[in-house]
């Protein structure tokens, strides 16, 4: 058994939506999606240690955006409580969450944190003799209670997401792309973007008959799109400036907004190309948040 004072570190990688098609809306108001999530080397970190009292401390470069949030409402603590109930464990944890991912930015930071917390609990509390192990399907079922983007974030591997986030399909390994992320330092709460999309009257996307050919950048550029992009640009016009700046970088193969924004991304042929482009990008756009690197491993 694991010693009481032994903790673990888990990583919560940011995701990008290589494309995001809105294919319909259910009677309960939830939108149906078709998207492929790709996870990046940018990640939050959670250190989870058994303790006498439950505690969550949040630090890191982007933690300031959470300063006004009640700690008890944080998805990490909700995930830990959910796992405790499911596994029949009452153990308390001391958790340090280091935020590197922008908040309310379309890259799944909160969802990734919740998924990482679930995986951390599963590792800390698994015990064959007491039958505390949870199947992958059960983990997905539990994750659905925390939010539509949490189930796809459980594994950190490329995944096709359909329905309202509950239909997951493995899509294989990612190419050795480089990724550059940029955000004009504006928050875009997902509910507000979806509400604006609903009110816009824009038509839904047709289902993909073939594909998705998500590893083909030409397919991503000419066939796929982000259906929330026009709505987000109307709410925050500066997003268009970010997309244009990314598209103009040498070696950029695709520039697009991720999720509900405001973070945008550019794909490059290699991580080295992305890092070289980032050095130039930072000089030209010092006010914007940005990051460059590889896909998550």
TrEMBL record:
GO terms for biological process: isopentenyl diphosphate biosynthetic process, methylerythritol 4-phosphate pathway; terpenoid biosynthetic process. Residues 74-156 form the GHMP kinase N-terminal domain. It comes from the Bacteria. It is an enzyme of class 2 (transferase). ATP binds at residues 102-112. InterPro entries: GHMP_kinase_C_dom, GHMP_kinase_C_sf, GHMP_kinase_N_dom, IspE, Ribosomal_Su5_D2-typ_SF, Ribsml_uS5_D2-typ_fold_subgr. The active site is at 15, 149. It catalyses: 4-CDP-2-C-methyl-D-erythritol + ATP = 4-CDP-2-C-methyl-D-erythritol 2-phosphate + ADP + H(+). The keyword Lyase does not apply. Residues 219-278 form the GHMP kinase C-terminal domain. Pathway: Isoprenoid biosynthesis; isopentenyl diphosphate biosynthesis via DXP pathway; isopentenyl diphosphate from 1-deoxy-D-xylulose 5-phosphate: step 3/6. Catalyzes the phosphorylation of the position 2 hydroxy group of 4-diphosphocytidyl-2C-methyl-D-erythritol. Belongs to the GHMP kinase family. IspE subfamily. This is 4-diphosphocytidyl-2-C-methyl-D-erythritol kinase. The gene is ispE.
